[in-house]
């Protein structure tokens, strides 16, 4: 078991004592009056939540071990000097590690070291040492995924702070707000924010519904920051619609004309009317009970942040159509930020014209969320909107073309063959949840979706104006907010190329950026035991939204990567791509430094029975690809590595290739070949509802990656695809004749992967990808001219190159 903490920030001795006094653990002059043991016993007694009666506290101490043979109360009675071993044996128990299960009671310091817990060791403990070590212990994460101070708070340790005057909140500990806001008294309200567009063609500016949950104190003078999650799923989804709209992918690729152009997408009105303001209100008139929530937001809510959710245009109780990533969708979410900052109108309801302002907000906003939610956070950040101080974009799309297309090909996100922009628009068009509203807008929506289908162009797969409108990379230079990126290195849904493009651009801008790369797929990481992610966010937002001088930017690592071979291990780096470049040539069936010669070929056709089986179960095809002997792919493998190496960056494949038709596609997979136990593909749940987010508040499920029980022989670490007619750019179609050798160069997905000693790097070249591309099962023969084929990996480093 390893616990990695990156959110513990530097404090002075004076700060530590002031903070301990502010939470009523330390009192004035105690440091001068009490012995080290008496100070320790006093601090322990004050964190005992069951009772403040001395006899009950003594019984609690009697159930804690100080040494293998002495209960803690008996040890105090003996008045022996405090030692490192005694302090940390007790600390492990407070942190909920199990004696004789997680650690040896005769040797607690070994467990402390192996787990990576922060420590203070002293040859002779003084009262000052006890205070400093206890302060550090309160900030230390335990077995169940939270710091001791948060664990105590969830048990009611800070409940007294609910009664503090608003001007005394929030209370900070180690630079982070504590959970001192009563969730039972949260204000829940709804407002309708007016936008500057009319996407449903009714002649009126679209209104967007926002749901707000904020502390009661924000009604009594405390200005709080807002954490806003833009979620088109928030008001419900049309799952059956999505299933019906899903496209058939068992169709052949076709030759593309160099003169083909897709139809333009729908244009929205530029003239429309705004709602007349008829009055002002200080309080909302509409409320809500529950809303789909991100558990990180629940964690932040009791720490004083107002939590805001909006589904945007084309959703239940809002106006407009679902436009799937368009500038209009971005602007509908930008409008929410503008209202929170004080720059836009909102109303208490849809029709009265009664205006309401966010007077409770300090004007500072952060955006959070994963996938579509993180995508819209990124999109809004590229507008440079005032008030948006930070975004935490997890698994976010930065170009929708890279989500639904690739290098002139229709390419599905992982697990969603046949999905496309129109399918997602249908699924999230939750105005259907209000039947009368839907009937009024049905024809308009149908017309829009039909035009979207034509404009997104599944016929060619080319980059066009539709996708250019949904490419946020054009506007990265406008970003003013601090950006924390979180992405799974194994995410086949929103692929790592999306975050790599954002990361690379941010390095050139005068904004703060952080990136966390984990070994998961399309997941949240805020409930991992091995990482203090929620604390990191709390520290960071305290700086960006509350204005705390807590050294957050210096404390949090710039690049943080979860190791793929060592469980619960997170390493810090200065940058993503680093180290020396390495080029592999294709030589026979090997990746070597020596250029190969000759022609190798493979067929893309499969017997009908096998083809249909693989269409129904693409995972069976993936297994067959690894084992293929050259029938429908070519394999090239390096010699085993002598030492661990870390592959960092974006691999590039160059191929000299020919197709037996006047069209074709090539795919590639980069593989780690080697027998060994690898991490589970998904985090393992080991404590349901075990992570308490506050006192009498929400919970989360504690999860963690573990080593698989059995060894495996391989792992896919990157892939890529290209249409042979788009060998220069995704927007440019080149002619191709049958059996014409052409050179294509394309990127695989960015990687940060440890290839352990003895493993081999493999590259598989093939055509149809049953998991992602169209699959027409045509009789096409592909040829590779090995003299023109090579693999380039720009970042190869050893452990010490961090």
From TrEMBL:
<dbReference type="Pfam" id="PF02129">
    <property type="entry name" value="Peptidase_S15"/>
</dbReference>
<keyword id="KW-0031">Aminopeptidase</keyword>
<dbReference type="InterPro" id="IPR000383">
    <property type="entry name" value="Xaa-Pro-like_dom"/>
</dbReference>
<dbReference type="InterPro" id="IPR015251">
    <property type="entry name" value="PepX_N_dom"/>
</dbReference>
<comment type="function">
    <text>Removes N-terminal dipeptides sequentially from polypeptides having unsubstituted N-termini provided that the penultimate residue is proline.</text>
</comment>
<dbReference type="GO" id="GO:0008239">
    <property type="term" value="F:dipeptidyl-peptidase activity"/>
</dbReference>
<dbReference type="InterPro" id="IPR013736">
    <property type="entry name" value="Xaa-Pro_dipept_C"/>
</dbReference>
<feature type="domain" description="X-Prolyl dipeptidyl aminopeptidase PepX N-terminal">
    <location>
        <begin position="1"/>
        <end position="157"/>
    </location>
</feature>
<keyword id="KW-0720">Serine protease</keyword>
<comment type="subunit">
    <text>Homodimer.</text>
</comment>
<dbReference type="InterPro" id="IPR036313">
    <property type="entry name" value="PepX_N_dom_sf"/>
</dbReference>
<dbReference type="Pfam" id="PF09168">
    <property type="entry name" value="PepX_N"/>
</dbReference>
<keyword id="KW-0378">Hydrolase</keyword>
<dbReference type="InterPro" id="IPR029058">
    <property type="entry name" value="AB_hydrolase_fold"/>
</dbReference>
<feature type="domain" description="Xaa-Pro dipeptidyl-peptidase C-terminal">
    <location>
        <begin position="538"/>
        <end position="792"/>
    </location>
</feature>
<dbReference type="Pfam" id="PF08530">
    <property type="entry name" value="PepX_C"/>
</dbReference>
<keyword id="KW-0645">Protease</keyword>
<dbReference type="InterPro" id="IPR008979">
    <property type="entry name" value="Galactose-bd-like_sf"/>
</dbReference>
<dbReference type="InterPro" id="IPR008252">
    <property type="entry name" value="Pept_S15_Xpro"/>
</dbReference>
<comment type="similarity">
    <text>Belongs to the peptidase S15 family.</text>
</comment>
<protein>
    <recommendedName>
        <fullName>Xaa-Pro dipeptidyl-peptidase</fullName>
        <ecNumber>3.4.14.11</ecNumber>
    </recommendedName>
</protein>
<dbReference type="InterPro" id="IPR050585">
    <property type="entry name" value="Xaa-Pro_dipeptidyl-ppase/CocE"/>
</dbReference>
């Amino acid at each position: 078991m390893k616990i990695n903490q990156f959110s513990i920030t530097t404090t002075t001795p004076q700060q530590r004592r002031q903070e301990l006094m502010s939470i009523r653990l330390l009192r004035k002059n105690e440091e001068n009056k009490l012995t080290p043991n008496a100070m320790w016993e006093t601090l322990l007694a004050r964190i005992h939540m069951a009772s403040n009666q001395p006899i009950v506290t003594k019984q609690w101490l009697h159930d804690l071990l100080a040494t293998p043979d002495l209960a803690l109360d008996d040890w105090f009675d003996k008045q022996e000097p405090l030692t490192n071993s005694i302090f940390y044996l007790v600390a492990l128990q407070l942190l909920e590690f199990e004696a004789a299960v997680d650690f040896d009671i005769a040797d607690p310091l070994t467990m402390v070291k192996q787990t990576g817990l922060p420590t203070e060791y002293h040859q002779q403990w003084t009262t000052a040492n006890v205070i400093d070590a206890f302060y550090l212990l309160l900030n230390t994460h335990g077995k169940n995924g939270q710091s001791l101070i948060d664990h105590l708070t969830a048990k009611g340790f800070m409940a007294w702070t609910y009664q503090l005057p608003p001007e005394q909140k929030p209370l900070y500990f180690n630079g982070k707000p504590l959970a001192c806001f009563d969730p039972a008294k949260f204000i829940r309200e709804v407002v309708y924010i007016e936008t500057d567009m009319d996407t449903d063609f009714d002649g009126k500016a679209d209104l967007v519904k926002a749901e707000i949950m904020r502390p009661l104190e924000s009604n009594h003078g405390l200005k709080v920051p807002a954490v806003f999650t833009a979620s088109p799923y928030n008001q419900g989804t049309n799952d059956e619609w999505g299933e019906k709209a899903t496209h058939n992918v068992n169709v052949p690729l076709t030759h593309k004309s160099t003169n083909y152009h897709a139809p333009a997408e729908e244009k929205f009105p530029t003239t429309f009317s705004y709602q007349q303001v008829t009055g002002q209100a200080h309080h909302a008139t509409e409320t809500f009970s529950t809303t789909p929530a991100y558990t990180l937001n629940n964690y932040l809510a009791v720490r004083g942040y107002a939590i805001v959710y909006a589904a945007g245009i084309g959703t239940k109780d809002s106006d407009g159509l679902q436009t799937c990533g368009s500038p209009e969708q971005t602007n509908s979410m930008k409008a929410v930020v503008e209202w929170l900052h004080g720059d836009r109108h909102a109303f208490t309801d849809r029709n009265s014209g009664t205006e309401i302002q966010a007077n409770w907000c300090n004007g500072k906003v952060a955006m959070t969320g994963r996938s579509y939610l993180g995508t819209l956070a990124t999109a809004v950040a590229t507008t440079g909107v005032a008030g948006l101080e930070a975004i935490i974009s997890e698994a976010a799309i930065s170009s929708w073309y890279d989500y639904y297309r690739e290098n002139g090909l229709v390419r599905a996100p992982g697990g969603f063959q046949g999905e496309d922009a129109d399918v997602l628009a249908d699924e999230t068009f939750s105005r259907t949840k209000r039947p009368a509203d839907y009937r009024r807008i049905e024809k308009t929506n149908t017309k829009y979706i039909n035009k979207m289908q034509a404009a997104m162009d599944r016929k060619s797969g080319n980059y066009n104006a539709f996708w250019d409108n949904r490419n946020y990379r054009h506007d990265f230079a406008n970003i003013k907010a601090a950006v924390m990126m979180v992405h799974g290195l194994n995410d086949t849904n929103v692929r790592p190329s999306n975050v790599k493009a954002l990361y690379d651009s941010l390095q050139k801008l005068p904004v703060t950026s952080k990136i966390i790369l984990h070994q998961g797929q399309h997941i949240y990481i805020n409930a991992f035991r091995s990482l203090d992610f929620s604390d990191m966010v709390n520290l960071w937002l305290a700086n960006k939204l509350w204005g705390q001088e807590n050294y957050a930017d210096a404390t949090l690592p710039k690049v943080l990567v979860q190791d793929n071979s060592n469980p619960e291990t997170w390493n810090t780096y200065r940058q993503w791509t680093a180290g020396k470049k390495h080029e592999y040539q294709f030589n026979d069936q090997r990746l070597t430094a020596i250029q190969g010669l000759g022609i190798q070929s493979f067929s893309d056709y499969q017997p009908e029975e096998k083809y249909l089986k693989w269409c129904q179960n693409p995972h069976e095809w993936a297994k067959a690809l690894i084992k293929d002997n050259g029938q429908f792919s070519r394999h090239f493998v390096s010699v085993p590595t002598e030492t661990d190496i870390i592959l960092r960056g974006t691999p590039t494949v160059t191929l000299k290739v020919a197709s037996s038709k006047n069209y074709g596609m090539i795919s590639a997979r980069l593989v780690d070949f080697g027998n060994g136990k690898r991490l589970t593909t998904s985090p393992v749940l080991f404590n349901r509802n075990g992570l308490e987010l506050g006192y009498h508040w929400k919970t989360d499920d504690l999860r963690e990656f573990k080593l698989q029980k059995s060894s495996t022989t391989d792992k896919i670490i990157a892939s890529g695809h290209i249409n042979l007619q788009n060998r220069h750019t995704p927007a440019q179609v080149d002619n191709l004749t049958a059996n014409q050798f052409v050179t294509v160069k394309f990127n695989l997905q960015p990687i940060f992967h440890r290839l352990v000693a003895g493993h081999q790097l493999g590259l598989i070249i093939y055509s149809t990808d049953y998991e992602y591309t169209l699959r027409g099962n045509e009789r096409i023969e592909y040829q590779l001219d090995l003299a023109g084929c090579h693999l380039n990996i720009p970042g190869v480093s050893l452990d010490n190159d961090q």
